[in-house]
Specification:
six-stranded parallel sheet; 16 strands; Rossmann fold; single chain; binds flavin mononucleotide; 2 domains; 7 helices; alpha/beta; 25% helix
């Protein structure tokens, strides 16, 4: 609960205006020496909070003047178990629920503990491509996948930047073909065989991460099979997984569905994946940042 009260000037600091009409007696009070003088002040006011009469210090007593009852904000708020703060610069009195130190520390620890790994598979880092030259001109659109980091790699780098995460490139022991004709045979072939291509390296410190982003290019409407090797060869128990993907003319709906079902029960898969087509990669950063924010990063 946050309650902000603007007081017209510093003269009535510590008091909030109440609108109780009462008898006016003939005393006068100077609220602040150089500004306001309240006349006909009566201290004939009792303050009862939650059935208990408040005993307030001399300078915090409630009073009535000019048909208005002035009540001490601090006295009342603190009697209700609230915390009052006064910002003299902005002349703002703030009343808040007290912060539970233990809860605050726990929330801070939880925030700190969200170490992020951004694991991704990209064709560009899983094949050996000839350097583009005059004889071997790479088309900028279809060729983006053949130049490190590739489409998925670019998304991965932006995610690492946005989350403070570490990048991990999933690389298979055996390199993939470096041309479209052969990759379109090998990729779908591995899917049909339910292959588990061996990985060159595992993420040695996987236990240090709480959130694992997993990214891949859609191959034959599915994740490349090396993604399953990664999942099966790392202990992801208790972790949160976020899925992202680059695709071509299709989408990532099936890939997200089949991959989500592949994790052990004690893995939480964030229900909102991020996917973008090859033609949209260059302009995808703003959408990606908005998505990160939406899912809490
Ligand atoms: C073997 C293979 C199969 C593919 N199958 C699909 C597909 O089913 N649907 C689709 O939209 N894109 C498909 N694509 C296109 C890629 O998903 C797309 O070009 C993606 O942006 C490549 O990302 P990358 O640069 O990280 O490799 C396929 C690409 C390859 C190499």
């Amino acid at each position: 609960m946050k309650l902000k009260k603007w007081l017209s000037n510093g003269t009535v600091k510590g008091f909030v205006l109440g609108f109780i009409f009462a008898t006016i007696l003939s005393t006068a009070i100077v609220v602040a020496a150089n500004t306001t003088t309240l006349e006909n002040v009566s201290y004939d006011v009792n303050l009862v909070v939650n059935g208990v009469e408040l005993e307030l210090a001399e300078d915090m007593r409630p009073f009535i003047s000019g048909g208005r009852t002035y009540l001490p904000l601090r006295g009342i708020a603190e009697a209700l178990g609230l915390v009052v703060d006064w910002d003299n610069e902005t002349k703002t009195a703030t009343v808040d629920e007290p912060v539970d130190e233990e809860d605050a520390e726990e929330a801070e620890d939880a925030e700190e503990a969200r170490a992020v790994l951004v694991a991704y598979f990209s064709w560009a880092e899983n094949a050996v491509f000839p350097e583009p030259d005059e004889d071997n001109d790479i088309d900028t659109m279809t060729g983006a996948s053949q130049i490190v980091p590739g489409n998925t790699g670019r998304l991965a780098a932006w995610i690492a930047e946005g989350t403070g995460g570490e990048l991990f490139s999933i690389v298979t022991e055996e390199a993939y073909p470096n041309n479209w004709g052969d990759i379109f045979v090998v990729g779908p072939g591995e899917l049909a065989e339910e292959a588990r291509p061996a990985l060159k390296a595992l993420c040695e410190d996987i236990e240090d991460y709480d959130v694992i982003f997993i990214g891949f290019p859609v191959w034959a409407d599915n994740p490349p099979m090396a993604i399953y090797t990664f999942i099966e060869e790392h202990d992801l128990s208790g972790k949160t997984v976020v899925i992202f993907s680059a695709f071509g003319m299709g989408d990532m709906d099936n890939s997200f569905e089949v991959l989500s079902a592949a994790f052990p029960d004690d893995v939480t898969v964030i229900a909102v994946p991020f996917g973008v087509s090859s033609t949209g990669i260059a302009d995808a950063k703003d959408d990606l940042d908005a998505w990160l924010k939406e899912i809490g990063f």
